[in-house]
Every structure is written in structure tokens, then in C-alpha cells.
Specification:
105 residues; 73% helix
């Protein structure tokens, strides 16, 4: 993995870009060597490496928030939490943990 200073904001940016990166990788109109595909493959690689260290609840929360663009209220309802604050805490904690795991690796 590339060594870099990783912040929760960086992690959130990668997670937000992930669904679009998958689409770009599958785009047959772009060559495999296009810069856009190279960057997209990096984004997918980052999340793939991060996801290995997440439990199922964390993965589901990340997927709902960043890949399916669900609100915290929707995430809370789907995961069985009483309110959106619990879902927000889970997502925020997971993003921070990813950033900390990367820094310590």
C-alpha cells in the first residue's frame, strides 16, 4: 500500500468515490491505461484492503452510508438502532478506525 498521511476525511472521500470507481473500471469506452481507470483501481484497492479488517456490522454501515447514500435515520432503521445518533456513531467510529489502522500499518 502507498504510504501517506491518512485522515478520516481522506477515508470518507475514498468511500464516497468507490461506487463511481467501480463504474469507471467497467466502462468499455476507457482504455485500461487511462488515468481515470488507474485512479479508480486504486480506490477499489484501498477499500478492498480496508474491508478485510471490518466486521459485518461495520461493513454494512459503510455500504449503506457511502455506497447506497442512505441517511443516518435510514441506516439506524435498517440496522435496528433506536435513533440516527447510534448509526452516526457507528459510521464515524468505523471511518476513524480505518484511518488509524492505516496509520499504524
Amino acid at each position: 500500500m502507498i504510504t501517506m498521511h491518512v485522515t478520516p476525511s481522506f477515508v470518507e472521500s475514498v468511500l464516497s468515490a468507490y461506487p463511481f470507481a467501480l463504474l469507471i473500471i467497467r466502462d468499455e469506452h476507457l482504455t485500461d491505461e487511462s488515468e481515470l481507470k488507474k485512479i479508480s483501481r486504486l480506490i477499489v484497492q484501498f477499500y478492498t484492503q480496508w474491508a478485510v479488517h471490518l466486521d459485518l456490522l461495520e461493513k454494512e454501515a459503510i455500504e449503506l452510508r457511502y455506497f447506497k447514500r442512505k441517511s443516518f435515520a435510514e441506516i439506524a432503521a435498517q440496522l435496528g438502532y433506536e435513533n440516527h445518533s447510534s448509526a452516526k456513531r457507528l459510521v464515524d467510529h468505523t471511518v476513524k478506525r480505518i484511518a488509524e489502522d492505516i496509520k499504524s500499518s
